[in-house]
Design a protein that fits this description.
This protein has one domain: Alpha-Beta Barrel (Anaerobic Ribonucleotide-triphosphate Reductase Large Chain), CATH 3.20.70.20. The protein has helices at residues 74-91, 97-106, 116-122, 132-160, 177-180, 197-207, 221-226, 257-260, 274-285, 309-321, 342-350, and strands at residues 15-16, 24-27, 30-33, 59-64, 109-114, 240-245, 248-253, 293-297, 327-332. A hairpin with a 2-residue loop joins strand 6 (240-245) and strand 7 (248-253). The two termini are 32 Å apart. The relative contact order is 0.13. By secondary structure, the protein is α/β, with parallel strands linked by helices. It has a 3-stranded antiparallel β-sheet, with no helix packed on it. The chain is built from 11 helices and 9 strands.
Length: 361
């Protein structure tokens, strides 16, 4: 049994809902738009006290895949994440009634992934040249990650009751991700399942689900810095990155740089985002919300440094074919903020004491 202890913190006013007729609001005077990975129902509200409107909030966390050595390892991590976030839903304050009502009715969570690039590197897998065997391994791990998140929420429903809108979810009807995915993705990874979905399906029908949603793959910039992980599911831009925030400048090193420096696929070294899109397609199969999927292109790999619109459209349509829900940004390499660290990465690469424990991240 995993129990979550509540802590006391000083309340802080954050939201100021004052942007009319847009899909945005002000948070500490910063205009905030919906994230690409969140797919939750909303209804218009006509004033800040309107209880008939619906503002959807998604409380987020992420599982560090760099710490996962076996699919079974997901069970404890997923149970802890679901229970912690579910406690937070009741503990936090809601400045707008429509947001509180919606959250209490649906109890949505969005648990994502960080350190995917490290997981690939230490399993000798590549973004750019992902093999069928690599996609099969990814399928096995993603299935376990998804299964244990859903199982944790069903277990909570047994203990505390299902969310009031459980009957509006597919989970409450016993419909699982393996029942709803776009089957074109079977071209990438065969639908071989290792988890006991039938028992979970029966429990979901009987007890309902505590949380209407459980997964969302966000960029995870801040949490990646705190845990020294690679960002979300994306390839790193460099072995050593400079990241700046209001708290200052941070130089971040990819995990196990000495041992795995030649295993990492760097973003701008990839000639095409095709392999990354295949990885995202396998991930999306098991996700009940979406992924913030960015496609990235380096002009140096194209004639006259021009990226053909036809190629970008081809990748967009291919992603749709394999069941991808959202594409976020189409990025191109301009070298800004990265070139100055190349000499540092080269110096790290020249070091030959690969077993130095003090230097292993």
């Amino acid at each position: 049994m995993i129990k979550i202890r509540k802590i006391t913190v000083e309340p802080t006013d954050v939201y100021d809902i004052t942007v009319p007729a847009t899909s945005a609001f002000l948070a500490n005077n910063i205009v905030v738009h919906n994230c690409a990975e969140i797919a939750l129902p909303t209804k218009p509200l006509y004033n800040i006290n309107d209880e008939n409107g619906e503002i959807s909030l998604c409380t987020l966390a992420a599982i560090n895949w760099g710490k996962i050595r076996d699919p079974k390892d997901f069970e404890h991590a997923c149970a802890l994440a679901v229970r912690a976030l579910d406690e937070l839903l009741d503990y936090q304050d809601y400045p707008v009634k429509a947001a509180q009502i919606s959250t209490m009715n649906r109890r949505p969570l969005g648990i994502g992934i960080i350190n995917m690039a490290y997981w690939l590197a230490k399993n000798d897998l590549s973004y750019q040249n992902i093999t069928p065997e690599g996609l099969a391994k990814l399928h096995e791990y993603t299935e376990a990650w998804s299964y244990y998140l859903i199982k944790a929420s069903v277990e909570l429903a047994k203990e505390k009751g299902a969310c009031p809108k459980s009957n509006e979810t597919k989970y409450g009807q016993g419909i699982m991700p393996i029942d709803t995915y776009k089957t074109d993705v079977d071209e990438l990874a065969q639908p071989v399942y290792k988890q006991d979905w039938e028992s979970l399906r029966a429990d979901a029908i009987r007890y309902g689900i505590r949380n209407s949603t459980l997964m969302a793959l966000m960029p995870a910039e801040t949490s990646a810095q705190i845990s020294n992980s690679t960002n979300g599911i994306e390839p790193p831009r460099s072995l050593i990155s400079i990241k700046q925030s209001k708290d200052g400048i941070l130089k971040q090193v990819v995990p196990e740089i000495r041992k795995l420096k030649n295993k990492y696929d760097l973003l701008w070294d990839q000639k095409s985002p095709l392999g990354y899109l295949k990885i995202c397609a396998v991930l999306q199969k098991f996700i009940d919300q979406c992924i913030s999927v960015n496609t990235s292109y380096n002009p140096k790999f194209y004639p006259e440094d021009q990226i053909p619109m036809s190629e970008m459209l081809q990748h967009l349509l291919l992603f749709y074919k394999f069941g991808g829900k959202n594409l976020y940004y189409f990025n191109t390499a301009d070298g800004a903020g990265e070139l100055e660290m190349k000499h540092v990465a080269l110096q790290v690469g020249e070091l030959d004491d690969e077993n130095c424990e003090a230097c292993t991240i």
